[in-house]
Amino acid sequence: MRLVVDLNKCQGYAQCAFLAPDVFAMHGEESLVYNPRADEEQRERLARAVAACPVQAITTDGLDAPGASATSGREVSDGH
Asked: Which residues neighbour 68 within 8 Å (Cβ) at sequence distance 6 or greater?
């Protein structure tokens, strides 16, 4: 799973560091440091951290939203 934080958007609210401390950390009061290659066991915490970012500065590849499935959620019917 690949993680990218737009540090120009990041305002240092530290919600991500609170929710996924093994991936995100604050260096000082305003500087965020993070692991761009988060481990698979961090998936749930990372999803919560991404959702909690007030300025949506965090994007990921290979991470579904918590509780999301691989299907669209629509059932296909053949009309019978």
From this structure: none
CB-based contact 3:23 (threshold 8 Å): yes
Q: Please indicate, yes or no, whether the overall pTM of this predicted structure exceeds 0.70.
A: yes
Q: What CA–CA distance (Å, rounded) separates 72 from 32?
A: 34
DSSP notation for 28-39 = TTTEEEE-SS--
- Percentage of the chain beyond pLDDT 90 is 61
Q: Which stretches of the chain are assigned E, i.e. beta strand?
A: 2-5, 24-27, 31-34, 58-61
The answer to whether 60 and 46 are in contact (CB under 8 A) is: yes
Helix-then-strand count for the chain, H and E: 2, 4
Residue 8: both structure tokens together: 């120009």
For 29-34, what is the mean pLDDT?
88
